[in-house]
Structures are given as C-alpha cells and as structure tokens.
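Cross-posting from the modeling subforum.

Setting up a comparison between two proteins and wanted a second pair of eyes on the formatting. Protein 1 (sequence, then structure tokens):
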Amino acid sequence: MVDTKVRIVNALGNDVERNSKEQGEIIVKGSGVMNQQQQMSSDGWVHTGDIGTMDESGHINMIKMNKDITKHDGDPVSSFEVESVLYKHPAVREIVVLATPDQELGDIIEAFIVLNEGYQPTKQELLDFSAQQLAPSDRPKQITFLDELPKTPSGKILRVQLKQNYK
C-alpha cells in the first residue's frame, strides 16, 4: 500500500529486532489504514492486535492474533505481554500463556513452556524471572514444561487443547 508504514513493537512500544525471532505487535500508519475497531495511538499508529516478527530485509511473518486477554483477580492480563517477558529468558523456545482453573484461587495465569535444548531451569527460576519484569497481577502462578505445544497442521497453537489436557 502506498504511503503506509509498518512496525513491529514489543510490549514497551519499542521496535523489535529485525532477526525473524523477536515477536511483537504489528502496527501500521498511513492514509486509509484506520479501522474503527482498532486502537490508534496519539501519534497515528494503528495497533492491529496481530503478532509477528520482522527479518533483516523488513519482511513480516505474522504469528498470531493478539486477542488473548485473560482476567486475573478482575484485572485484564495480556497473554502477549507475559509471553514477551518470558521469551527473553534464554531457556524458553516456545510459550503460551492461558488462564487456567485452580481449585483454591479460581483462574490463575499459567505458562506452558517448551525449553531450548540444553537448558533445564526450574519452575521457580522462571517465576522469579517474570517477577522482575511484571506486575504482581500479570505474573504466572504456574509453569508447565512440555516437549512440544499442540498445533494444527498449519502451525497454529491449539490453546483449547492445552486447557483441556492440563487442568
């Protein structure tokens, strides 16, 4: 599209590295971009809610839609924000954050994590890592390590299956 700019930003609004690895929200700016259902920042950037990566050449790979907002203690929690923080830990290869039921606490934030080869962090190590960067209401309360995340043939993570299989 002519006169359209695209960026990918992390939870703090900073551009992600152009390395095809660091994920962020895709934002766009230009004539004819505005959609009433999307959020526009004061400087004219439209937040699409889509998550992607950018390579060295500026090509974008869309990963998923960021419509995953959960509630914890009545407060909205962005799964993307929690995932972004934990992705910074060198042991984390893949992650999905969901609200899962807990008999004592009601819904809790749970992180399902696939580790990079050669890493064996404890659950507490990852919980402490997230505590350094997230508000108490946004921190995961449970970590579940998996060999792989359940996915469709096209690579979309099956979040519902995770919730059903790991109650």
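Protein 2 (same layout):
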Amino acid sequence: MSVNWKGLLEVIGILSVVGSLAFVALEIRQNTDAARSSTIQAVSEMSFNTMIPMIENADLRGAWIAARSNGLAQLTEDQRLQLGWFVGAMLRAQLNRFNQVKLGLIDLEEALELGGKSGVYAGPVFAEIWPSLRGQYPDDFQAYIDNYVLPPSVQ
C-alpha cells in the first residue's frame, strides 16, 4: 500500500487554508465587537457631556423651565438664544447617533436608548424649537428626527 503524498499534502493544505480563514473571521468579529463597544461608550459619554450645561447653568435651567411652563413666546430674547444654542448642541449629539446608525456601528434602537428619545427630546420645548433648526440638517436626518425622536404627540 503506497501513500499518495500529493493528495495528502493537498488535503492538509486545504485544511490549513480553512483554519486560517476561520481564525481571520474570529479576529474580525472580535474587532467588530470592540469597535461597537467603543462606539456605544463614546455615544454614552457624548450624551452625558451635552447635558452638563443644563446641570451647571441655572439660567439655562430657568429658561428651560419657563419654556416648558409657558412656551417660547413668553421667554426673553436671551432665554430663546440660550435654548436655541443648547438644543443645537443636543442636535449635534443626535446627529452623531444618527451617523453611527447609518454606518452600522449601532442600530436604531440602541441609538434611541442611548439618549436619543429622552430628556431634552421628549418634551414640548424641543418640539417647539425643532422647526426653526431643521433646515440646517440633511433631509435624512430631518426624517429621523420627525419619525423617531419627536414626542408622539407632535409627530
């Protein structure tokens, strides 16, 4: 009985290639999971950091409370500017979440759970300010805000 060395070496070579491909697939998955985890951490930190002005600035909190109670029309010009800039900053954070979804790094539900539907976005103040800011953003982002972020009462 003679050993077919050529055939045996071909089988060993094929198994080596398959094993290498499996290893590469495992490495890609681990890198994808690490990138996803890093993205989620960064989005969480960004969400927290964009709320710091509301936590630290009594004037901004006062403007927010007044707008929530009486609407934007009853605010001073300074209060309207404060809220407009604050909501603009919050929209930049929202745009970051939206872009992470577009890139496939997080899914829509994760983006919304990571602050995309809470706090600033959940109340009538955001819904009242959004129309004046929406034109500054791309159409697909506007649709995202309209369909997923605005409180259900204004959609």
